[in-house]
Amino acid sequence: MTTLVLSSLIAPDALDRLIVPLSGALELGLLYGLVAIGVYVSFRVLNFPDLTVDGSFPLGAAVAATLIVKGVNPIAATVVAMLAGAIAGLCTAWLNVQLKILNLLASILTMIALYSINLRIMGQPNVPLLGQTTVMTLLEGGLKQLPSVLSPFGTSLVLLAIVVLVKLGGDRFFRSELGLAMRATGENSDMARAQGIATHHIVLLGMALSNGLVALAGALFAQVNGFADVTLGVGTIVFGLAAVIIGETVVSGTTIFWATLGAIVGSILYRIAVTMALNTDFLGLETQDLNLVTAILVALALVLPQYKRIKWRFR
To answer: Is there a contact between 61 and 230 (Cβ–Cβ < 8 Å)?
Structure first.
C-alpha cells in the first residue's frame, strides 16, 4: 500500500532512486547496530576505550569468508568468526589487566596485530563470496515469499531479527548478577572490588563479548555484501561511537533497554543521514566526503544535548 501511494505521487524512476539507497542505508544501519551494541559494552558499560573493533570487524569478515570458501556451513562459519572476535577482545583485555598496559594502547596494539592476522587468514587482501552459499542464500527461499512491498527490504528484515535477538539477549544478560557485576566494574572498579567482584575477570569477559558482537557484524557484512577485505575495519570505532552518541541524544532513558535500543536507533539514523547527505545533489557531497559527514553528525550529536540544557535553564 505504501509503495502504491508513493508511486502515485512520485515518478517510478524517482521512487527506485529513493528505495534503493534507503534499503541499503537500513541494511548498513542494522549491521552497524551490532557494532554499536559492542562499542556500548566497552565504551559505556566497562568505560574501556577500545580501538580493537577496527581489527575485529574485518577479522569476523575474514574468518567467515575464508571458512565459507573452504566449504564450511555459513552458520558455523559465522559462529567461529564471532568466537575469533571474542579472542581478539580477550587479548586486548589481557594486555591491560595482566601486563598493565594502558587500555587505549593495549587496544591499538591488538588492532595493529589483527591487520597482519587478517591477511594471514585470507591469504590475500580480498576474498570474494560470489557464487558461495551464505546465510543470506540459505534464506533466499523464504525471502522470495515476501509480499512485493517488502521484497526490497528482505535482507533488512533478516538483519532486524538478528539485531533484536542480540539486543534482547544483551538486556537479559545485563539484568543478571554477572551483568550487574560488569556494570558495577565499569562504574567504579575500586568499589566493585571491595564488594568481592573479580573485576579483572569481568573486564576479560566484557571485552570478549564486545568484540564478539563486532566480529559477528563483520561476518554478516561479508555475507550480505559478497566479499571480505582487509581494509573493512577502517573507521569502525568512529561509526560505533557515532551511533552510541546519536542514540543517547535521540532516545532518552537510563535503563539498559533504552541504552541498547538507542545504540541501534542511532546506527540506523546515522546511516540514513549519511545516505541522504551523499545523495542530495545541492550539497555537492560525494563518497569521499563520508568522514566529513561523520564528523559533522557526531559534532551535532554532542552539541545538541548541551543546547537543550541551556534552553531549559532560560525557561
So the answer is: no
Alpha-carbon distance of 205 to 211, in angstroms, equals: 10
- Provide the H-helix boundaries in the chain: 2-9, 12-40, 53-69, 74-97, 103-122, 135-138, 140-144, 154-175, 177-187, 189-194, 199-225, 236-250, 256-279, 290-313
d(CA 287, CA 271): 13
Asked if residue 271 lies in contact with residue 242, where contact means CB atoms within 8 angstroms, the answer is no
d(CA 238, CA 87): 22
44, 47, 122, 209, 283 from 205: Cα distances, Å: 15, 14, 27, 6, 45
DSSP run (H or E) holding 227: strand 227-229
* Euclidean distance between CA atoms 115 and 119, whole angstroms: 6
Q: Please provide residue 128's backbone torsions phi and psi, each rounded to the nearest 5 degrees.
A: -80, 150
Give, in order, the Cα–Cα distances in Å from 207 to each of 142, 193, 210, 246.
35, 18, 5, 23
In tens, the pLDDT along 159-192 reads 999 999 999 999 999 999 999 999 999 999 899 9
Residue 122 Cα distances to 79, 180, 227, angstroms: 17, 38, 11
- Could you read off the pLDDT of 185-227 as tens digits, one per residue? 999 989 999 988 999 999 999 999 999 999 999 999 999 999 9
Separation CA 298–CA 246 (nearest Å): 7
| Residue 228: strand pairing partners | 127
Q: What grid cell was written down for 226?
A: 559478497
DSSP 228: E
Spatial contact of 271 and 32, defined as CB atoms under 8 Å apart: yes
Please return the burial class of 113, using the count of CB atoms within 10 Å of its CB with bins 0-12, 13-18 and 19+: middle
Q: Which residue(s) pair with 133 in the sheet?
A: none
DSSP class per residue in 64-87: HHHHHHTT--HHHHHHHHHHHHHH
